[in-house]
């Protein structure tokens, strides 16, 4: 397809689009086997493709690419019909309730399916998701790394998506700050989420790598820098992750002059604005100082 002139950015998203199609097809029609959400940890690109079909929100990576002209009537996006969307979310909620919790695949299925239910913004659905998430808030009270770390993180970020930032702030304070294993898990997960890890992961064990191998720090910093404005509800998590990444790899501030300048400018805009916690403000100030001091 690339050889025939297809846009490279679009070709690069085909894997994520097929992953999203598998998840949607399995949820709507069943597969007779394990649900795809139990088979691998999905990435941001897959989540963006799912959001495009479920909410109509175009993936940021495709924002600058105009829609192709077609002959005759054509949909402006791959959004599911209203009825299919309602069935998808209803079956997804059933999946959450039925997911076994005795093995790693069941836990993965439960947390990923529960997170995706937060894409349904209808009042009744939002209330169901909030109740289901709040039922898991006990996970957020645990300090440092635990086998439920990824589930607690997913719970906190989903609640932030629904407009409740407090659980995410608590999670950062309790499960990451001053805990090397928790900080490593966060960096490993972000690197995977942003596409910086070459191979798909079938469970959450990869997050336990405290040596931070298997991904490129520059790629992660670039993804955090240019993805921050797409997730305003997660600014505190972005701030802490950038601070932790630069603490683990101080040389990053000199790895790319353009990247360092862009990140410095973005952190300054955040610091000049409001809506961030005191911890995030301190960490962004440190990041900005390091970048300005070495560029």
Fraction of residues in helix: 55-70%
Main sheet properties: none
Report how far the terminal alpha carbons are from each other: 40 Å
Strand content: under 5%
Rg, Cα atoms, Å: 19 Å
> What would you call the shape?
globular
**How many strand units?**
0
Explained architecture:
The protein is mostly helical and 295 residues long. The protein is 58% helix and 0% strand. It is built from 13 helices and no strands. The chain has helices spanning 8-11, 14-29, 44-55, 82-98, 104-117, 123-134, 149-161, 166-175, 180-193, 217-227, 235-248, 257-272, 278-294. The protein is globular, with a radius of gyration of 19 Å. The model has no long low-confidence stretch (mean pLDDT 90).
